[in-house]
Amino acid sequence: MDLEALRSANPDHWSKATAIRALTLDAVAAANSGHSGMPMGMADVATVLFEKHLKFDASAPLWHDRDRFILSAGHGSMLLYSLLHLTGYEDFPLDELKNFRQLGAKTAGHPENFLANGIETTTGPLGQGISNAVGFAIAEEILRARFGKKIVDHHTYVIAGDGCLMEGVSQEAIALAGRQQLSKLVVLWDNNNITIDGTVDLADRTDQIKRFEASGWDVREIDGHNPEEIDEALTWAKTGKRPKMIACKTHIALGHAAQDTSKGHGALTDADQLQAAKIAYGWDAGPFEIPADVKSAWEEIGRRGTEDRFAWEARLEEISDRKRAEFHRTMNGEAPKKLGAVIRAFKKQCAESQPKAATRKASEMVLEVVNPVLLDTVGGSADLTGSNNTKTGDMEVFDETNRDGRFIHYGIREHGMAAAMNGMALHGGIRPYSGTFMCFTDYARPAMRLSALMQQPVVYVMTHDSIGLGEDGPTHQPVEHLAISRATPNTLVFRPADVVETAEAWELALTQTGTPSVLSLTRQGLPAVRKDHKAKNLTAQGAYVLADAEGKRQAILIATGSEVAIAMEAKALLEAEGIGTRVVSMPCMELFAEQDEAYRKRVLPAGPVRVAVEAGMRMGWDRWLLGERGREKKADFVGMSSFGASAPAEVLYEHFGITAKAVAGKVKALL
Amino acid sequence: MDLEALRSANPDHWSKATAIRALTLDAVAAANSGHSGMPMGMADVATVLFEKHLKFDASAPLWHDRDRFILSAGHGSMLLYSLLHLTGYEDFPLDELKNFRQLGAKTAGHPENFLANGIETTTGPLGQGISNAVGFAIAEEILRARFGKKIVDHHTYVIAGDGCLMEGVSQEAIALAGRQQLSKLVVLWDNNNITIDGTVDLADRTDQIKRFEASGWDVREIDGHNPEEIDEALTWAKTGKRPKMIACKTHIALGHAAQDTSKGHGALTDADQLQAAKIAYGWDAGPFEIPADVKSAWEEIGRRGTEDRFAWEARLEEISDRKRAEFHRTMNGEAPKKLGAVIRAFKKQCAESQPKAATRKASEMVLEVVNPVLLDTVGGSADLTGSNNTKTGDMEVFDETNRDGRFIHYGIREHGMAAAMNGMALHGGIRPYSGTFMCFTDYARPAMRLSALMQQPVVYVMTHDSIGLGEDGPTHQPVEHLAISRATPNTLVFRPADVVETAEAWELALTQTGTPSVLSLTRQGLPAVRKDHKAKNLTAQGAYVLADAEGKRQAILIATGSEVAIAMEAKALLEAEGIGTRVVSMPCMELFAEQDEAYRKRVLPAGPVRVAVEAGMRMGWDRWLLGERGREKKADFVGMSSFGASAPAEVLYEHFGITAKAVAGKVKALL
């Protein structure tokens, strides 16, 4: 590249873009790790985006109607941190950049949304940002329909690299965005032809333009170092009815000895080469130094949106107090006051009617009373709507003709669905929940982990939660998936036993502010186990005594979900033989672990033998069986230790020995 | 559809295809569950494929040079079972079809490869079959290059539905196949425009033809009920240099009242409608009855390949004894005799040199000695070749110009990579291994679970296995992933502590015949902990005493991988204070659990306090801490209980308290 030509053609642009490159080189050198090449390659595109198109106000990073900027290629985090510093975000003083990748810094190796304002989402696992962005764009559409264009009207811009586009989840996102005609979504593809292993060609020859077009996107190709072309393309991107992809031909690590090579992807820390690049840029400021005029030009960009924001605030004042209050409640993720009341009323009604139902059906019953009062929910399913029971009567389907719709047909795309839900939650104003089979947690895993890491209260409605699924067989029967979700930090895993516990689980899930929930629900019908109405949410304690021993307490059975009824049957068998048996329902291990020791001991006192029963793997159970004053040789587990099989559910429960008789037998063997 | 016109145009074809439809209707009705519509829609395509194109011999289902037929849309399992029954596969007598979806039947709800010959892979989780198929086709290319076209020369045919094509993994597979010009891969897309929720349009408007073409496929569209068009397209599909996709326009549940509706996807069990469909077909045989002439025509098809097979066997006789023996060894998945010897020699050398190395580097050192003697290995990486250390000096890159290559650049496609490895292993003749970061186990999860369920000895080289990854931060630092892999049935999880244990882990992984292995390897350098050479593979016992207490044994430290050295340091601290401390290295929990109780007690005797140390979540550890005669209040754990952070590795180990001092402190607190 002829840097001198680039520089002389657009000297003002060049100095602004070069500030990003210089800060990137300096921060990576200081950390002695990181990824230099991408920020250096995409600095021109990002500069034009921030200077002329992105609606933002650096002094109000949480302005609800800002455009969202998603760095899907999260390894290029210094691009984002440079922009946030240069434009004057409070969370990004120069010291943060000097502390790049150090403990406690806001400038983590990859952008982490929970560390600082200005970081819209956590990226790094490739393909996630572009898929979150689909959720951001859907959230904008839904909120615009709900609150009006004067209050909600913004774009979502994504920078994605070849890694993002190779990950399968990107196809799910691209196809969903195309189907939904998300015209305010703009993807800037960093087409630099380089991945870690070498040129893209080593692993891929896909014509990305044709691929995006095949899914209903409009596409343009530009020189990603030409500010006029970038500007024109971004202007074009805000027109029309389809999502837009701009293929930006760039040079990774522009101007460095490693330009256009895979070495350029990583940490360019060689001091001489670093200096040589700066000389080539015509940049003579010292490390982390930004010439005053350049900094000042960038800070002006940071203030570009202030007037727009004031105008928006004025418009917000113009709407009715009620609507404004609702907008604030929604955007702040607060549950409406009525929510608790409708759930309590529902529970009371269940105590009277004692409904028998599969918990997936119970979930639908709860949603039927919740959705009309909690208008923030957006439901969906990965093509299992009738099986997951996630669409309630009041919900219309969201599509290009009905942006009021609150139910999304995500298609057979569990991963894209979860990532889109993350985007909606991050955007704010939406409480996303969606369903698939529990076993397909596997497909959604990367995004489910990010819900937890990003502290987003997404709700995963995972039905068909055991061998109780029956004939579809082991490919569809989760056995290790409760353990997988429970092993994940900051995740609540609910496995309710009946309609009442399902209502309690939903109440907890819908009032979380920083934790995702997994609702593990049965396909098969279950009896009511909660006989008396309690206004209090017993599930909030994680576990509680469902039924105590009639005589001397000799055994404690601990169970979750569909196995609580089995434990109750086992109790009846044991009591008939004079063996006093307590049944503890444990719908949420994580919440039980959070209770104080006194409560935990009250529920699980030392002394009696303990048998846990759950149609899943034992992993995770030993704490409650062997620990918490349990004792080896005085505890056992009834559940799965292998994959399931294809047969009717009741046959499988017999075959794998998950029966009241087996539970009672284990108790007697321990006594 | 005018069935009468279809029937009269090709009566012989019609009766054969209708046999599939009738058996499907009967089996689903008998099971009262299943998926009728897809086999009914694709019966014509499958009939022509089996009758005129597929190279197979029903009497020799394991014939190595057969074409592979992959039913990616696995819910349509009755299509496959019908074909296998009709053509005369021994494992599929009529009784098996009558027992569809019942316990112990070979006719599980979804096809399960390990239940019967004739089922090439386990499908049902959508997108897996088409992605396995890429691995099958790669295996064929590599083996053809290795053993010659006279011995290996076959096609891979896939039937995929809209669900398969919506799953992101299909994009990874399609792009990889296009890049690799897998000309012997043929995908038959069941283009019926229906998914469970309704018409495809609800969730997708992708132009699939354009999408495949964008990735370098040749595509044709046909009427999937017209046998001539099907035949012509299949003839065409065997020409040219690119993979082929045939878009087959079909009617789901052809001829049934539910034709062309989402209801048609599921179980069509209504007796009257079933009968009406059979009448419309002109089929008057009773349930599960196949007219003798039709059965006989199908059986003739089942024998179509016999002559070809004999010719192939004759050709196999013509090659040298040595080459033939090697072919058989390879295809039977037997390790060469030399493998054990080279690994023992390598260990001996390590005992002398005491190499310090990251275990990812250790893994490369092992592979450098293994790959030249085990020619069945095919390595790869999801664009982290230099980080995963999976490419050895003798390995060339596999691509369209070099089918001899044994290293595959999978691109940033962890899921597609894992699924392709499953396909290679299922094909036979290949021992696939490949790498990514341990944290991205998440992306590969659905296929990793299937390695376990399908009993395939795939090796996952998962490097950067903890916070020891350092600055890339929590998005890249696994904490729950050891628990996730350990919770999965039939999976060996190895976390070796040094070069010697890494060699032992590889030996075990490469000699498995029905179990996948996960090698959890460090980024950071580790000291040698195995000081003396033992010819015996100590890792085979799962855990062993690495260093015993010097005086009275008061404490046992259990550790894995990078934390074994920390445990050894803690031991030194404790012994200095007179606290006799044993260190147990536990590179594989699953193998330790398989040892007899006497051995387990010898390694972990009752009495001493126990502290486990592993830079991951505690889940899975309580068995060894609290159980096995451990005791609460006498055991503790040093590890992670949250996500990690972005900082240098050594800072993180301090920050999260995973240090020798912390371990020693825990021991003293328990004593």
Distance between the first and last residues' Cα of chain A: 80 Å
Characterize the overall form of chain A.
Answer: elongated
CATH superfamily of the largest domain in chain A: Thiamin diphosphate (ThDP)-binding fold, Pyr/PP domains
* Major sheet attributes of chain A: 6 strands, parallel
The assigned structural class of chain A equals alpha/beta
As an assembly, this protein is homodimer
Per CATH, the class of the largest domain in chain A reads Alpha Beta
Q: How many DSSP E strands of chain A?
A: 18
What is the element layout, followed by pairings?
The structure is a homodimer of 671-residue chains.
Chain A lengths: L2 H7 L1 H21 L5 H17 L14 E4 L5 H10 L7 H5 L29 H20 L8 E5 L1 H5 L1 H12 L5 E7 L2 E2 L2 E2 L8 H7 L3 E6 L3 H11 L6 E6 L21 H11 L10 H12 L2 H13 L2 H11 L6 H16 L5 H12 L6 E5 L3 H4 L18 E3 L4 H14 L3 E7 L3 H13 L5 E5 L17 H7 L4 E3 L4 H13 L5 E4 L23 E4 L5 E7 L3 H14 L3 E6 L3 H6 L2 H7 L5 E5 L8 H4 L9 E4 L10 H7 L4 H11 L1
Parallel strand pairs in A: 1-2, 2-3, 3-7, 6-7, 8-9, 8-10, 10-11, 11-13, 12-13, 15-16, 15-17, 17-18
Antiparallel strand pairs in A: 4-5, 14-16
Helix pairs in contact in A: 1-2, 2-3, 2-4, 2-11, 2-12, 3-4, 3-10, 6-8, 6-18, 8-18, 15-21, 16-21, 18-19, 22-27
